[in-house]
Amino acid sequence: MRTPASWVVVGLDNGGTCNNATVLDATGQFLVDRLVENPSRVQDGPESAVEALAEAFTGILAMTSTPLSLVRAVGLDTPGPASADGVISSKGSTNFSQVSWHGFDIRGALQARIGLPVIYHNDANAAALYAHHRHFGADAARRSSVAAIVGTGLGGGVVEGGKVISGAAGMAGELGHVQIPLHGVLEEGQPVPVCNCGFEGDVESIASLTGIAKNLLPYWFTRFPDHPLAAEPIGSAAKMLRGYGEKEDPLALAVFAQQARAIGKLFTIAANFTDPAAYFLGGGVVEAAPHFRQWFLNTVREHTQLRREQQEAATFALVPDLDMAGARGAAVAALETVSG
């Protein structure tokens, strides 16, 4: 399972309910080909959550028969917002809502707990980095990409020359809060969507699970008042909507088409800032049935306005390996750091 003489790095993906772990050796080979999870315990506070990450670390080493002495570094990702050094925002976030998390240095705490260097990215940046390296392979260091990760919110990542752009405060690539032109996205008379961050008409206010529940479904239920989901609590209806989309339900397709058009507007803006070689789409919408996720990606592509030269140079693709992408991207970041 492991080359005995090779050193390794470990990738840890911290989520609201579970941690996911993987091991990457010095040659760039992953030693784990499936999701390996343990409870993240983030709702129990920082101390319990850091201990759960340490358990994920020791557990993946045991599973892959990897001695601790061969581990050079650990890559860690968590949901944002957080600084480039892994300090959770002083305002907290959906996953780190308790006051004890506000301003907590999760990277530093894990590093002190396991006694190894810890390299931090937010979860969307990690997934974007993995998609980039998986797609471009040996050419990754000479390519650029932009990724939109659709989940409870909308995360993102900008990769240039194979490296994630983190920004001065570590919050570059927060693509969900880019405000987009709404012409061609909303229906006539549809209220302007509002994001939890306070912005009106940013991408997350439309292309996220929160956007579905808060902004899109309340409008579309006025157009489909007899829809079965209209009788459900709005949060439950939002989570159930993807299943209806897979069955080509008209209301669901109307909602997801608006999300895809919003991401297309975002990628159009990205095209004029970074002119990337690839546009990646990840998150919950990618975990749907193949025909549905391909329809969604095609709709995003159709609504991304590129010049002819850009169309010839760029590709559109889904983030691979679904829930494993975060841990694998965190491991890639650790390997790059160790390798210099």
Structural overview:
This protein has 2 domains: 8-129 and 324-339, ATPase, nucleotide binding domain (Nucleotidyltransferase, domain 5); 138-320, Nucleotidyltransferase, domain 5. It is built from 9 helices and 10 strands. It has helices at residues 46-63, 106-114, 123-136, 209-223, 234-246, 250-273, 290-302, 308-313, 325-339, and strands at residues 8-14, 18-25, 37-39, 71-78, 118-122, 144-150, 154-160, 163-164, 278-283, 315-318. The mean pLDDT is 93. The chain has a 5-stranded mixed β-sheet. It is an alpha/beta fold and 340 residues long. This is NBD/HSP70 family sugar kinase. It holds the Pfam family ROK. It comes from Couchioplanes caeruleus subsp. caeruleus. Belongs to the ROK (NagC/XylR) family.
CATH topological fold name of the largest domain: Nucleotidyltransferase, domain 5
CATH structural architecture of the largest domain: 2-Layer Sandwich
- What's the N-to-C terminus distance? 26 Å
String of helices and strands? EEEHEHEHEEEHHHEHHEH
What is the radius of gyration? 20 Å
Mean pLDDT: 93
Q: What is the topology, as strand order, of the major beta sheet?
A: 3-2-1-4-5
Count the DSSP helices.
9
Q: So what's the CATH class of the largest domain?
A: Alpha Beta
Question: How much helix, percentage-wise, in residues?
Answer: 25-40%
Q: Note the beta-strand portion.
A: 15-25%
Overall number of strands: 10
Protein name: NBD/HSP70 family sugar kinase
Family: Belongs to the ROK (NagC/XylR) family.
Pfam family, one: ROK
InterPro entries: ATPase_NBD (IPR043129), ROK (IPR000600), ROK_cs (IPR049874)
